[in-house]
Every structure is written in C-alpha cells, then in structure tokens.
Amino acid sequence: MSASDDPDLQQYRPYLLRYAMLQLRDREQAEDAVQETLLAALAGSAQFSGKSSRKTWLTGILKHKIIDTMRRNAREQPLAAGDEETDAGAIGAMFKEDGHWTEFPADWGDPERAFENSKFWEVFELCAKIMTPRIARAFMMRELMELTTEEICKELAVTPTNLWVMLHRARLSLRECLEVKWFGGAGR
Amino acid sequence: MMRMLSCKEASMLLSQSQDRSLGWLERLALRIHLGLCDGCRNFRRQLEIIRNVVRRYRER
User: Fold this and answer.
1) ipTM, two decimals
2) Class assignment of domain A84-183?
3) Helix (H) or strand (E) holding A144
4) Most buried one in A6, A61, A74, A175, CB count within 10 A?
C-alpha cells in the first residue's frame, strides 16, 4: 500500500501542499516534500503516539522535509545574497526623509470579514508571491513554520539584527500590498 | 530627556516586538510615540492581523 492510497493520510494532502507551497514557492518541490512526508508518515505510523494530533505530527515531519529542501536549494543555487543596504533601502522607501510614513497605514477594520472571503485569500497569495524570495523565505520560516529567530539565524547564516531587518521589510511589503489591494479600498 | 522616535524607528520596534522582547526604554519610547501617532497604531494592529492571516491561510 502506498501513502497515496491511505485515505487517513490523504485527507491532509491539501493542507500539507498549501503549507509547503507558501514556504518553497515551487510546485514540484512542494509536491515532493509532501509526498516524502506522507511516505515517512506511513513508514513511521507506529511512532505516532496519539499524544499530538495527526495533523500536528504530519506538520512536524513536513517541516523537516521543507528544511532539507531549502538546504539543498541553498547548496545548488544560492539566492542572491542580500545585504543590509538593500534591505535598509527598501524600508527607507516606505518613509519620508524625516522618518514619517510615505503612506500612512490605514485602519483595516475587522479582518474576519476578509478571512471569510475567498477573494481575499487570492490577494494574499499574490502579495506573498511578489515578496523578494530571500525576504519571503525568512518571513515564512518565522510566521508559517513558526521557527524561533535563533533557528532561522542558524539556518540562513545571518545575525539577529539582519533577520529583524529582513522580517520588518517582509511585513512592510505585505502590509503595503494588502492595503493597496484589499483593506484600503476595492476589496473591503 | 528622551528623543522622540520617528515613525520609521517606531515601526521597526513594533515589528521587532514580534521577534524579541523589547527593553523597558524601548517600550516607553514606543508608548509615547503610539499615544501621538494614529498611523503607527494602525501599523501595530496590521502586524497582528498579518500574523493571523498567515495562520488562517495555513489552517483554512
């Protein structure tokens, strides 16, 4: 029996795939990571203690597969080495010379209404996609995989200060995109 | 006498508060800035929403 036949595991595939896609941004790699996860789960189902939920257990396996994939990617095709100046420049572009916002952040109101609208999730996917890859990777490690800053610094070989700046840049980018494309007007 | 934070500095601290604990002086400077600045108060709320957006997307 293969993992793809096991209906118990199969039901988690869409969730796992969405998770892997957001972090890896590559369909083929995401599919592979999910497939490996389901196979590992099938092979190791005896180790599943039932203490955590099955979903949490699968997510834990997937995280390892995703990190393996990112390490492989980093070896084979390093991302353009960003530097602090690039990040500082991108952040600076959001502010005037005197440190005031160029575009004042708006009141987004109650986000629950957005969360219930499938169009909002399309906008989110778009906004996530247009983030710079290096920045998006750090941001998703933090917010999607919920790794600690120490873990991310180790994985990406950056200092905490570098990482804070990268995460800030990511949040500003996402903030601007969501505001322009949703909360600031049309969608809301 | 503490210097007033700019929005650029305040937003950086707000973002970092999601990744590390701020020192008491940083928290104090932020509180003063937020008391006077609607834009940064909105940004603080937006950071919370963005954190929730990723989680809701994942669990959807």
Assistant:
1) 0.95
2) mainly alpha
3) none
4) A175
